[in-house]
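ok so i was messing around last nite and threw this chain in just to see what happens. nothing serious, just curious
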Amino acid sequence: MISTAFEAISQVLKFNLCATEGVVRATARCLELLSELNGQVLRAVFDEHSAIAAQVRSPAEVTMLQIGLLGAAPQQAMSYWRHVGTIAVETCSDIAMDSRHCLSESSPQMHEFVDSLLSGAFLQKLWSAGDAMRRKGPRIVLADETDGTMGMPLS
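result:
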């Protein structure tokens, strides 16, 4: 258990520094991966257009070859965004794992508490409450309600 306020502040500051370092590291890695991906895309586009320029003998051929490249554009765009999504998910996962590690290093008691929240009945109750709210639909909360209800349906 935390014995003094100074110890508590020290643990919070230690966690904040550690977590900030992890976020910066993960963000830098994310930017690096996105730069590599964009470089690969630019090289591929340049190579395709260089091949077109080497083959053409008239302006009509340029147009026909470029139209041929348009057929693959949707698949290429889907592949690009799939890679971007993978990079984003990996970055978020790295940040979460780093934060969890920082929490366990700075305050083992808080780490145990958070683990019990995320793995126990509390999370199930939270999800159940969220599902119930979604089933009821959006609500407007009125400040002057006196009948005990907290809102009324939007529709």
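not much to say yet. Residues 138-155 have pLDDT under 50 and may be disordered.
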